[in-house]
Specification:
Length: 93
């Protein structure tokens, strides 16, 4: 292998990688992104549910409206995450 070819291989490793290896790498990175976003979504749903329960417990109607809207938005985000996951699974097949 000449020096120029080695420099090109180092500068652009995706060209030298086999398609199967690239596919495994893309699938792994996609799953990591899905896992991280799932943790964020679960955290948002847990916090919003906790806010709804807390505001109901202390009978704070003014803040309860915010907590309820936040819970609805978190639930919507969770549903969108599942749709995104299904779409990503279909594209990887």
């Amino acid at each position: 292998m000449s020096g120029d070819a080695r420099v090109r291989e180092i500068a652009n490793p995706d060209r030298s990688a086999s398609p199967a290896r690239r596919q495994v790498l893309e699938r792994t990175l996609g799953r990591i992104v899905l896992a991280l976003t799932f943790l964020i979504v679960v955290g948002a749903v847990a916090i919003s549910s906790g806010l709804v329960v807390y505001t109901a417990w202390v009978h704070d109607l003014r803040e309860g409206f915010f907590a309820l809207v936040f819970a609805v938005m978190s639930g919507k985000i969770a549903l969108h995450w599942f749709l995104w996951k299904e779409e990503a699974d279909q594209l990887s097949e």
